[in-house]
Write a structure and sequence with these properties.
There is one protein chain. This protein folds into 3 domains: 180 residues, Jelly Rolls (Sandwich); 48 residues, Orthogonal Bundle (Arc Repressor Mutant, subunit A), CATH 1.10.10.60; 56 residues, Orthogonal Bundle (Arc Repressor Mutant, subunit A). Helix 3 runs antiparallel to helix 4. The strands form 3 sheets. Strands 2-3-11-6-9-12 form a 6-stranded antiparallel beta sheet. A hairpin with an 8-residue loop joins strand 2 and strand 3. It has 11 helices and 12 strands. It is an alpha+beta fold. The relative contact order is 0.10.
Length: 316
């Protein structure tokens, strides 16, 4: 009898190799994936199965999460995780944790959807270097069980993919950082004590980061990039930055882009589409959405009001 080797899925490889491996292992291509984005260190895919099926046995160098989303009734499944077999009745919000280099296989008997999240060990390491040696941390495999925070964060990434996933690198990396902290605090055999800080960033470091963001609004900025600028871990930096500004780094970046867009639109030298790209939004639709959310009006409505005020001032 020929024993099949597990299919290796390395999410850090190029798009064609990973999607090919996913199709081979999971019987079909995912409906959504992050391979057209510039996310760094975190990989996301979504699929929905209309029929029963059985996956091939897989193994990955990344940490992986399976997050179950919509299904009309529990998904009855038989899951093999690191050699242990268990029958499950999986519900929306349930999460399976698959550590790196751990084999996984599943057979399911009714339809349902799920998100696959894979993230590199460097995401954990950047958090752990504040506390303990990353080599001493072990996260064991976990069969399906509810985890509301992981579920909500997974849905946020799925929503980003549904909207194109462009220009969301900082947001995706922030979610990866939150996930790593949550997993380490709640699932690691040796729980690291993540320090709490309350004083914010030193003023000179805050000034350095804010000036860097303002000078690079048109680029896809990453959380690691900003943290390295002030020689901090992403986790430490994110917490101190929010304490100093009141906003998470990705929220602050969006507000800066909207502010710059408003300034450019006031000068009327560029179209709304041109301004969108100049300030780092993926397209005009993204600018419109965030502009209205923050200012209460759309770029077009603001320009119309400016023109109306200009005409009135001309007569008076």
């Amino acid at each position: 009898m020929v024993v099949e080797e597990p299919i290796s899925i390395d999410f850090s490889q190029d798009r064609a190799k990973v999607l090919g491996a996913l199709k081979q292992a999971l019987l079909q291509l995912p409906q959504l994936s992050s391979y057209d984005t510039d996310w760094d260190g975190i990989y996301c895919a979504y699929d929905n199965y209309a029929n029963p099926g059985k996956s091939r046995e897989v193994i990955s160098p990344q940490y992986n999460l399976l997050i179950f989303t919509e299904n009309p009734k529990p998904i009855y499944a038989i899951r093999q995780l690191d050699g242990t077999i268990k029958k499950e009745a999986v519900k929306p919000g349930d999460v399976v944790i698959i550590p790196s280099e751990v084999t996984h296989q599943a057979e399911w008997f009714n339809p349902g959807g799920f998100i696959i999240l894979g993230f590199d060990s460097k995401v954990f390491n950047s958090t752990l270097f504040e506390t303990i040696d990353p080599d001493r941390v072990e996260i064991p495999p976990n069969f399906a069980q509810p985890d509301p925070l992981i579920y909500q964060l997974g849905l946020k990434l799925k929503t980003e993919l549904e909207s194109g996933g462009l220009g969301s690198r900082l947001y995706a990396e922030a979610i990866a950082n939150l996930l790593s902290v949550h997993l380490l605090q709640n699932y690691s055999i040796q729980t690291p004590q993540i320090k709490n800080y309350s004083d914010g960033l030193p003023k000179y470091k805050l000034k350095q980061v804010c000036e860097y963001i303002d000078a690079n609004l048109d680029r896809s900025l990453g959380l690691n990039e900003l943290a390295q600028l002030v020689q901090m871990s992403p986790s430490y930096f994110s917490r101190l930055f929010k304490q100093s500004t009141g906003y998470a780094p990705h929220q602050y970046l969006i507000r800066c882009r909207v502010k710059r867009a408003r300034e450019l639109l006031l000068h009327k030298k560029f179209t709304i589409a041109e301004v969108s790209y100049q300030v780092g939004f993926a397209n005009q639709g993204h600018l419109n959405y965030h502009f209205k959310r923050i200012t209460g009006t759309t770029p077009k409505a603001m320009q119309k009001q400016m023109s109306k005020n200009s005409v009135i001032s001309h007569f008076f």
